[in-house]
Input
Amino acid sequence: MALRLDNLPNAQVNPMANDCLFCKIANGDIPARKLYEDEELVAFWDIAPQAPKHFLVIPKKHLSGPAAVDTDDEALAGRMLRKGAQLARENGVESFRLVFNEGAEAGQTVFHLHLHVLGGRALAWPPG
Ligand code: 5GP
Ligand code: ZN
Output
């Protein structure tokens, strides 16, 4: 019987999950307004901004969300945070909110780890 790679869990086959929107943005298959890219990370403007400045920072490696960040990914997750803060300041935002959603009930709709960076207006707390 032929080995069907697409029947195996994605993480064991390829860091890019099949049919993942943000993997496709990361590798250029789907266009996005990118504001930063390096070997590990991509940042792009959110298609449905919730603030005047709203962009996402994602790892090129497919991780389903913040709960999937393992010991090996700690440096990568730290880089996401630092890059988000740096890009906020470079885009004229000194006061901003960084958000990771985990799970549908928390508002996660794309199951590829992403850091929201929101700024450019007063942000209410607690969030809805
Ligand atoms: P979540 O709700 O999973 O925390 O955040 C997903 C975010 O991705 C949402 O803010 C949504 O507007 C954004 N988004 C979904 N699809 C696309 C897309 O195709 N392009 C861009 N640039 N952003 C997207
Ligand atoms: Zn992905």
In short: The longest helix spans residues 74-90. The chain has a mean pLDDT of 91.
